[in-house]
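Quick one: MTMRD protein from Picathartes gymnocephalus, structure tokens please.
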Amino acid sequence: DKEVRAIFLRLFAQLFQGYRSCLQLIRIHAEPVIHFHKAAFLSQRGLIENDFLTKVLNGMAFAGFVSERGPPFRTCDLFDELVAFEVERIKAEEGNPPKMIKHVRELAEQLFKNENPNPHIAFQKVPRPTEGSHLRVHILPFPRINEGQVQELLQEGLARSQGAPPATRGDKKCVVPAGPPVGMFICHL
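--- reply ---
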């Protein structure tokens, strides 16, 4: 699962390398609007006639990508690092499948670590019932719930949540690395 995601991450990093140099921040509105200059991106990469990339850039998914990833100051992630710093590595690995596979595995491991930051927490497996356990009659009646205690616990929880400071994410915003200019990536798909 993570290796397939890593392959697609590399693909989109290669496809959109240099996209940040074609972003334009328009500040005529109360909220700044981010515009992607498609023609400049395609012409600088020598892909004006490429129907696939043109359709990708005209799609709604890419518009969402630009609005989400366009701001110059936001939380950075693995994709931003690939686009900005791994350009030469990805190019060098094109003719060397073992190096490419190694890089995909490294990315997959990073994706796994991002999703499981606490690997030491292990989930306990439920033991398989012993043979014949279903034949034993040892079903205890479900205990009665004390409504007063339930209400008391709910009130305590509400009081704690109202007095607690709002939860904040630990992600720190930073300046998104621009990476090399688009002109470096002249290729033919």
